[in-house]
Amino acid sequence: MMSVVHFVKNTGKKPATGDRPTEEDLRHALDFYMLETGEVHLSLEGDTVFLSGRVASHEILEKTVIAVGNFFGIAVVDVTTLTIAGEDEAAGHAANGHWAYYVVKHGDTLQTIAEKIYGEYPEKWQQRIFEANYPILSAPEHIYLGQVLRLPDACS
């Protein structure tokens, strides 16, 4: 059961306030991306972000995780006490089987990731990967080494 997601700590977006994000920086990112996270509470302890409260869907949950996790200095996002509306279990447990993430490696593009993960029809999957990460990912070519991307389910 997944209740934490790991990130590459020494890569990612640096906040305007300095090298390490504050809780305010992380909240600002969620507000900027308009992820409907008004019922989400976050706390930052060292390099770990704890998310609690409630989100409307698995998609918003996963986008919230990558929005705060892809900051420089963040190593872990814990969703143990975050729930999804209409589900009784904590999001981390309910998300078991829904979570698919990919860490960008040297030389990766969305097309090469699509070819590695899905094989057939990389152009179709390239677009689906972009859409799965929008608005956190602003353009298909704006990925970086160590970034964690959300992957769409090949069955959907």
Descriptive terms for the model:
156 residues, alpha+beta, 2 domains, 30% helix
Describe this structure in words.
InterPro entries: Bact_Kbp, LysM, LysM_dom_sf. This is Phospholipid-binding protein. It comes from Candidatus Tokpelaia hoelldobleri. The protein has 156 residues and is of the alpha+beta class. It contains five helices and six strands; from the N terminus they run βαββαβαβααβ. The strands form two sheets. It has a four-stranded mixed sheet with strand order 1-4-3-2. A two-stranded antiparallel ribbon has the order 5-6. Helix 2 links the parallel strand 3 and strand 4 (76-84). The protein is globular and about 40 Å long. The two termini are 21 Å apart.
**Fraction of residues in helix:** 25-40%
Structural class: alpha+beta
Q: How much of the sequence is in beta strands?
A: 15-25%
Number of strands: 6
Spatially, the strands of the biggest sheet line up as 1-4-3-2
Count of separate structural domains: 2
Residue-averaged pLDDT, rounded?
A: 87
Question: What is the string of helix and strand elements?
Answer: EHEEHEHEHHE
Largest sheet: 4 strands, mixed
Individual helix count? 5
Termini separation: 21 Å
Shape: globular
Specify Rg, calculated over alpha carbons: 15 Å
Name the poorly predicted regions: 92-97
List the helices and strands and how they pair.
Elements: E1 4-6, H1 23-32, E2 40-45, E3 48-55, H2 58-69, E4 76-84, H3 91-94, E5 101-103, H4 110-118, H5 122-133, E6 148-150
Parallel strand pairs: 3-4
Antiparallel strand pairs: 1-4, 2-3, 5-6
Helix pairs in contact: 4-5
Domain LysM: 100-151
Protein name: Phospholipid-binding protein
InterPro entries: Bact_Kbp, LysM, LysM_dom_sf
